[in-house]
């Protein structure tokens, strides 16, 4: 760590630009994660109080319980999600001067939960920049049998016909990965507090959860400061514009009250 408390990820920047993914071991300490975990779990329960039985859900629903913008429910989560330490890593990997929060989400893959089909996150986002990034941080140790995500290296630089998260995206992207000979990479088992980062257009998937423990993961998404909202290209983007860019109209700078500038931090 540097004098200002930022984590030096200079050695990861070129690889991130090339591959569209990177891993930062030990980004949060075990103590930080242990303190945060019950807050995320309580907020996730508040967002999903009575989830329907796994067997009754579609493929997307079986992949995880998704709880969004949990920072708005809990001060401890807010302070974690708004942490300049994480935002600084995002800005460094994106090679931009500043980043704003898009949103957070807790992704809890339950025991018996299914795979997360191949997809690109940015299909869902009405933003005019490709400088977008997601941090994926387990709050519990993730064993080999569950694993972290698998990325198609360099796919963020390819022209990919995009799909939403479904059986269709799994099949179509599997075929595309084989056809183009894309290299797959996973960082495998991770410790609580390790984090992977991926670009908004990087193709990725995750395996199922055959264990009896919940795979508790917290994610945070940022975009380059200066990005503008675009006219929604699909129904998901319409919903995202209303929710995560609330107060911002297409064409305007995406700088609304839910999208604080998190790096540079005050006084950094
Ligand atoms: C997962 O946690 O299984 C997938 C996360 C993502 O798609 O970004
Ligand atoms: Ni994703």
The CATH C-level name is: Mainly Beta
Residues in helix, %: 25-40%
**Number of beta strands:** 11
> How much of the sequence is in beta strands?
15-25%
Q: In terms of structural class, how would the helical and strand content be classed? A: alpha+beta
Small-molecule binders here are: succinic acid, nickel (II) ion
Q: Which sheet architecture does the biggest sheet show?
A: 7 strands, antiparallel
Q: What sort of overall outline do the alpha carbons produce when their principal axes are compared? A: globular
Q: What ranges have pLDDT less than 50 throughout 5 or more consecutive residues? A: none
CATH architecture: Sandwich
Instruction: Output the CATH homologous superfamily.
Output: q2cbj1_9rhob like domain
Q: Helix and strand succession?
A: HEHHEHHEEEEHEEEEHE
Quick synopsis:
The chain has 268 residues and is of the alpha+beta class.
Account of the 3D structure:
The chain is of the alpha+beta class and 268 residues long. The chain has a single domain (26-260), classed as Jelly Rolls, CATH 2.60.120. Helices cover 28% and strands 21% of the residues. The protein is built from 7 helices and 11 strands. The longest helix is centred in the N-terminal third of the chain and has 18 residues, at 30-47. It starts with 9 loop residues before the first helix and ends in a 5-residue tail after the last strand. The structure holds succinic acid and nickel (II) ion (NI). Succinic acid binds next to strand 3, strand 5 and strand 9. Nickel (II) ion binds at residues 119, 121, 204. This is Phytanoyl-CoA dioxygenase. InterPro entries: Oxoglu/Fe-dep_dioxygenase_dom, Phytyl_CoA_dOase-like. Keywords: Dioxygenase, Iron, Metal-binding, Oxidoreductase. It comes from uncultured Acidimicrobiales bacterium.
């Amino acid at each position: 760590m540097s004098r200002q408390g930022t984590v030096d990820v200079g050695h990861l920047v070129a690889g991130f630009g090339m591959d569209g993914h990177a891993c930062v071991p030990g980004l949060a300490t075990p103590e930080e994660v242990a303190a945060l975990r019950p807050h995320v779990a309580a907020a996730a329960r508040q967002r999903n109080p009575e989830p329907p039985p796994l067997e009754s859900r579609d493929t997307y629903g079986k992949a995880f319980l998704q709880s969004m913008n949990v920072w708005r429910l809990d001060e401890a989560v807010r302070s974690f999600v708004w942490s300049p330490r994480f935002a600084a890593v995002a800005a460094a990997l994106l090679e931009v001067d500043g980043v704003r929060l898009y949103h957070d989400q807790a992704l809890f893959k339950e025991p018996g939960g299914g795979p997360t089909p191949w997809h690109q996150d940015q299909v869902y986002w009405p933003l005019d920049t490709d400088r977008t990034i997601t941090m994926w941080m387990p709050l519990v140790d993730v064993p080999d049998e569950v694993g972290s995500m698998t990325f198609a290296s360099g796919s963020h630089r390819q022209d990919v016909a995009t799909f939403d998260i479904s059986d269709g995206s799994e099949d179509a992207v599997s075929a595309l990965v084989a056809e183009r000979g894309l290299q797959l990479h996973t960082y495998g088992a991770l410790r609580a507090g390790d984090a992977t980062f991926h670009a908004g257009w990087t193709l990725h998937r995750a395996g199922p959860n055959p264990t009896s423990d919940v795979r508790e993961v917290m994610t945070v998404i940022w975009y380059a400061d200066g990005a503008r909202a675009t006219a929604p290209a699909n129904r998901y983007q319409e919903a995202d514009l209303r929710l995560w860019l609330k107060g911002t109209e297409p064409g305007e700078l995406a700088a609304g009250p839910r999208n604080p500038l998190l790096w540079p931090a005050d006084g950094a």
